[in-house]
Amino acid sequence: MPIAKPDEIDKVLYTHEQIQDRVKELGQQITSDYHKLLGNEIWDRPPIAVGMLRGALIFTADLIRAIEIPMTIDFMTVSSYGNQTEPGAIKVLKDLTESVAHRHVLIVEDIIDTGHQLAYVRKTLLAREPASLKTCVLLDKAPRREVSVPLDYVGFKMDKDYFVVGYGLDYAERYRNLNYVANLSPKAIK
Ligand code: PRP
Questions:
Q1: What's the fold here for domain 16-81+89-162?
Q2: Spacing, Cα 115 to ligand 1 middle (Å)
Q3: Against a cut of 0.90, is the pTM above it?
Q4: Is 110 marked active-site?
Q5: Which one is catalytic: 113, 140, 159, 170?
Q6: I want to staple 183 with a disulfide (CB 3.0 to 4.6 A). Which of 1, 107, 126, 162 is the partner?
Q7: Span 27-64, pLDDT tens digits
């Protein structure tokens, strides 16, 4: 049974293989950078990956298995920033279980669009005084940016405003379980 009807997918932007290859590269880069940054401290204070639910669930699961250092993992949910919502209305819906004070934090996001959500999450976590704070996004929809956010690791930089679904990304909660990223067809949008 297919996850999406053929006419709902306009085109595949990143195949499963392309994503897996890129995630592996990101994992190697992150491994190397934390090794350099932390040295032996890594054993006493392993970095913490903060996966942003729900979109980054799948990316986080793959990425942490491509990072070859000790790590812990936690999750956070913030409210959606839709067209009808002011950026100031973003708030934490599900907070972290662990404290990030004095920890090396890696925020893991599926996509950065306007940047408001990630900017809010960075500000929220910085206020908790982590030892360091980095960001890793799979997709960077750069043409849509409204606020500047420092990005340490980017999977794919997108030059167009595609309606992306798959690999965790949804439309009306569907398509998250596609193992590739695609542009949704206007026919599928209600
Ligand atoms: C999506 C995505 C990012 C955010 C990016 O989340 O996962 O978190 O939007 O948008 P921005 O850069 O314009 O702020 P969404 O709120 O749709 O929730 P989800 O993670 O549950 O899909």
A1: Rossmann fold (3.40.50)
A2: 9
A3: yes
A4: no
A5: 113
A6: 162
A7: 999 999 999 999 999 999 999 999 999 999 999 999 99
- Burial class of residue 60 (count of CB atoms within 10 Å of its CB; 0-12, 13-18, 19+): buried
The residues, any chain, with a CB within 8 Å of residue 186's CB and separated by 6 or more, are 10
Predicted confidence (pLDDT) per residue in 85-144, tens digit: 565 689 999 999 999 999 999 999 999 999 999 999 999 999 999 999 999 999 999 999
Residue 108: which H helix or E strand, with range?
strand 104-112
Query: Which atom number of ligand 1 is nearest to the Cα of residue 113?
Result: 12
pLDDT 10s digits, 55-94: 999 999 999 999 999 999 999 999 976 554 565 689 999 9
Q: Closest Cα partner for 59 from 186, 164, 190, 187?
A: 164
Q: What does the longest C-alpha to C-alpha distance in the chain come to?
A: 54
Closest to 144 in 3D by CA, of 124, 164, 130: 164
Atom of ligand 1 nearest to the CA of 114: 13
Pocket test for ligand 1, best of 53, 80, 149 (most atoms within 8 A of CB): 80
Pairing of strands 92-94, 132-141: unpaired
